TrEMBL record:
Chain ranges of the OmpR/PhoB-type domain: 131-228
Domain Response regulatory: 10-123
Keywords carried by this UniProt record: DNA-binding, Phosphoprotein, Transcription, Transcription regulation, Two-component regulatory system
Name of the gene this protein is made from: tcrX
Function per UniProt: May play the central regulatory role in sporulation. It may be an element of the effector pathway responsible for the activation of sporulation genes in response to nutritional stress. Spo0A may act in concert with spo0H (a sigma factor) to control the expression of some genes that are critical to the sporulation process.
Protein name per the record: Stage 0 sporulation protein A homolog
UniProt key word Repeat: no
Keyword Transcription regulation: yes
GO molecular function, one term: transcription cis-regulatory region binding
SUPFAM superfamilies: CheY-like (SSF52172)
Length: 228
């Protein structure tokens, strides 16, 4: 089985607070990743050039080069996924970060479990070439065969059902809005109403035997979350 080899994944954590970098480094190393840290933008740039990390966790407010500058420069140099760290009241900062090339953001304080879910989602989305077979809980995504198995049985899925289930799975643990699902699953082929998402979620639940909605969980007023 061709799975992601975590000890070949480099993650760079950039923050001027030692307590944050130590906390993240300890947790990610326990997960099997190679983790490096920097306390300022200039140090981050030097390490990024040397390591070419797959993931960069980047604070915005730092001495010297701030997170925006670092993000912009790194995105020009290499293929990587950047998760920016922001404070609760920095709404404009989060928007600016995403506009500067960041792939995701997290609001301080955050849980390590959520950070790990976001890292895994970014790896699956940005670097699909890292693995052709992706095991996620009781599921196995086979990118080569365009199939998904559940508890060792291959599911009979239409193209849309496959794309929807795969999108839910690679973002396991994250709440996905109907708008984001339509954008990523239907892309430019969508001309209908948002309730088409509900229809296909129901199809998937039927095929998974998810009568109590414990696998695909509805977050009322927001969207759906895979909980495996």
């Amino acid at each position: 089985m061709n799975m992601i080899n975590k000890n070949k994944i480099n993650i760079l954590v950039v923050d001027d607070e030692d307590s944050i970098t130590s906390f993240i480094k300890m947790g990610l190393e326990a997960e099997g990743y190679n983790v490096y840290t920097a306390s300022d933008g200039i140090g981050a740039m030097a390490l990024a050039r040397k390591l070419k990390p797959e993931i960069i966790i980047l604070d915005i407010m730092m001495p010297g080069m701030d997170g925006y500058e670092v993000c912009d420069e790194i995105k020009k140099l290499m293929k990587t996924s950047i998760i920016m760290l922001t404070a609760k009241d920095e709404i404009d900062a989060r928007v600016k970060g995403l506009n500067s090339g960041a792939d995701d953001y997290m609001i301080k304080p955050f849980s390590f479990k959520e950070l790990l879910a976001r890292i895994n989602a970014r790896l699956r989305n940005i670097f699909p070439e890292l693995n052709s077979l992706i095991p996620i809980g009781d599921f196995l995504i086979d990118n080569g065969a365009h199939e998904i198995s559940f508890r060792d049985k291959t599911l009979k899925l239409s193209v849309t059902e496959y794309n929807l289930l795969k999108y839910l799975l690679i973002n396991n643990g994250l709440v996905l809005s109907k708008a984001s699902i339509i954008e990523n699953v239907w892309c430019n082929d969508f001309n209908g109403e948002e309730n088409i998402v509900e229809v296909y979620i129901r199809y998937l639940r039927d095929k998974l035997g998810d009568k109590e909605h414990k696998i695909i969980f509805t977050v009322r007023g927001v969207g759906y979350r895979m909980t495996i």
